[in-house]
Specification:
With 97 residues, this protein is mainly beta. The protein has one domain: Immunoglobulin-like (Sandwich), CATH 2.60.40. It contains no helices and six strands. The chain has a four-stranded antiparallel beta sheet, with no helix packed on it. A hairpin with a 2-residue loop joins β5 and β6.
Length: 97
């Protein structure tokens, strides 16, 4: 049985309803990083979380803005969730205006 739990997106909705990725951390403490980019592995748009977290459920919300607070244009963006540098999950979020 694989005891490692993935960071799992539970909900994603296009703007004007805010895109959200809620996630669950593995059962151990570690540095979790959640970010969005313009392409998979591409230009960083926003770092949503980059800190050490305790085991248990963690929530991450993206409001469709970049790191400088600017509202982003319509398009497809990519998110990545990692624990201690290992990518555990990735996916897409769409902004529609």
């Amino acid at each position: 049985m694989n005891r490692r739990r993935r960071l799992t997106p539970l909900e994603s909705a296009p703007i004007p309803s805010t895109p959200r990725q809620r996630s669950t951390t593995p059962s151990r403490t570690g540095v979790v990083r959640a970010s969005t980019s313009t392409t998979p592995g591409g230009r960083l748009v926003r770092t949503l979380l980059d800190s050490k977290v305790e085991p248990g459920k963690q929530s991450v919300t993206w409001d469709g803005r970049d790191n400088s607070g600017q509202v982003l244009s319509s398009g497809t963006y990519f998110y990545s969730l990692s624990l201690d540098g290992q990518v555990l999950d990735k996916g897409k979020a769409v902004i529609l205006k």
